[in-house]
Design brief:
The protein has 292 residues and is of the alpha/beta class. Helix content is 22%, strand content 22%. It is globular. It binds fe (ii) ion (2 copies). The site of one fe (ii) ion (FE2) has 6 residues, from loops.
């Protein structure tokens, strides 16, 4: 399969040119659960306002990320107007962005609304693709399963990924996907099984150029050693699952603000994960000795 090229070259040297190093910055957003029918999510959460705050936060970062990865559950009930609003809002980002589906999403609607970006495959069921235009190669996976909320990497998707990773074994690579392929200890979410997780982990282990796997779905910041690399979960733009590690506790959520992963790649650092916290915490203060 030929490398899929997108119109990102105008962005690709932003960080490098501005700050004089060979590298890039990747930001991740996830689980936007956009609802544009005028109703709040679960009667409580303004998902449109939450996404607007995230977009403004990303555009104000300095240095500005080169790329934003939106890792699924983009719409809550997958109405086409949700995706149209989403596309218009993401278009106000001052950097490139790439989207993948989550369990709440509709592939056909996403394919239509984001068609002009040109990175989705022209045919086939799955919305997986590679992004080749940056110092770090990024591989998008489609882990959506049929008629259930848990994740899946079936033989067809595993074979596709194995072939893509085999193409460029020496290139630093980030894999992005919606469902984390591991249990987290948040009991009610762990009940959603990820089919193919063991085969996926074995595959990743065979391709050590994978610097990191980034996922969503869990609505919290979580990380784990996985397949010889690091796998992480991103918080939601809209709402977070309550942190409760008792195995049999039912589901609940909280309105903690989102925390945005900021992945820095530089020749002299490798891939380093930072996090940017949404919220107003006042001005910066000079880091001085305590006066008293
Ligand atoms: Fe979600
Ligand atoms: Fe999800």
């Amino acid at each position: 399969m030929p490398a899929r090229r997108v119109c990102a070259f105008v962005f690709s040297s932003f960080t490098m040119a501005t700050y004089g190093y060979n590298g890039m910055i990747i930001a991740q957003i996830s689980d936007l659960h956009l609802r544009t029918d005028g109703h709040k999510l679960k009667g409580i959460v303004d998902s449109v306002g939450a996404l607007d705050a995230v977009v403004r936060h990303l555009n104000a970062l300095e240095p500005r990320p080169d790329v934003v990865l939106a890792t699924g559950d983009l719409a809550n009930k997958a109405h086409v107007q949700d995706y149209e609003t989403l596309e218009a809002m993401l278009r106000t980002l001052s950097m490139a962005f790439y989207v993948i589906p989550g369990n709440h999403d509709d592939r056909a609607m996403m394919r239509d609304v984001f068609a002009k970006d040109g990175y989705f495959p022209p045919d086939g069921k799955f919305l997986h693709y590679t992004v080749e235009d940056w110092p770090v190669r990024m591989i998008a996976l489609d882990t959506k399963a049929d008629r259930r909320d848990g994740g899946e990497m079936c033989p067809e998707r595993l074979a596709w990924l194995d072939a893509r990773l085999g193409e460029q074994p020496d290139r630093p690579t980030v894999v992005f996907m919606h469902h984390p392929p591991f249990k987290t200890g948040i009991g009610f979410m762990d009940k959603q099984h990820f089919d193919g997780a063991e085969d996926f982990e074995a595959l990743i282990r065979r391709h050590p150029q994978v610097e990191r796997i980034v996922a969503g779905h869990l609505h919290r910041t979580i990380s784990k050693r996985f397949g010889g690399t690091v796998a992480s979960v991103c918080s939601s733009s809209a709402f977070q699952m309550a942190l409760d590690l008792r195995p049999d506790v039912g589901s609940s959520f909280v309105k903690e603000p989102p925390t945005i992963p900021i992945l820095l790649w530089r020749d002299d650092t490798g891939l380093v994960a930072h996090h940017s916290q949404l919220g107003d915490f006042g001005p910066r203060h000079p880091f001085v000795r305590d006066p008293l």
